[in-house]
Amino acid sequence: MTLYQDYGWPAKKLRLSTCNRMNMNEEKRLQRRQRLMDNKAYQTMEGLTRYMDRYYLDALIGVIPGWGDAIALICVVPFVYFSSRVIKSVPLTLAVLNNALRDVLLGMIPFFVGDIIDIFHRANTQNMQMIKGFVDGDEAVIKQVNQRAWQSAIVLILLLLLIALMIWLLISFGSYLYSLLASIV
Fold first, then answer.
1. Burial (Cβ within 10 Å: 0-12, 13-18, ≥19) of residue 12
2. Half-sphere exposure of residue 174, counting CA atoms within 13 Å on the CB side?
3. Alpha helices in the chain (DSSP H)
4. Cα separation of 156 and 93, whole Å?
5. Residues 72-122: pLDDT tens digits?
6. What is the spatial distance between Cα 90 and Cα 137, in angstroms, rounded to a whole number?
7. CA distances from 49 to 10, 74, 128 (A)
8. Which of 64, 184, 44 lies closest to 112, judged by CA?
9. Mean pLDDT across the stretch 121-140?
């Protein structure tokens, strides 16, 4: 007698019901994934990822001083909306914001260095991979995002401070150049 039969359950039936439950869970997960992928914000994120990272539009827009980085930051709004409102995950939202602000900070480095870094950083692709991993239920991605939730919050605060410092430095440098040019003319 097996353990299952000791309790009056036929082993074959129990295995089948477990299989059916697993298939139903898998089916529900696939339906949820399809519903999320049909979401307009998800489709927008895929388009932004394609154009900003794969076609290097992020680096090209970054050539416009100040405005390029602001436009790149605006392109993160669908990622933040999807992770916070559709998936409803605070750790994922923090990780998405962390990647986006790191991308902006790196892109703000002057003399086209930031634009070259933008070619290799690909924050939108990283955000899309995290979101897809979360939607697919990828244990490694979920564990990584959850472990980095507090780290992301601290890094976000530091990145916001660094971005403010970089803006101040760029404005100071611009006013210095303006005064230098004004004194020559």
1. exposed
2. 9
3. 3-6, 11-37, 40-49, 57-61, 67-74, 77-81, 90-107, 113-121, 123-136, 139-147, 149-184
4. 11
5. 889 999 999 999 999 999 999 998 988 888 888 888 888 889 889 988 989
6. 16
7. 52, 13, 7
8. 64
9. 89
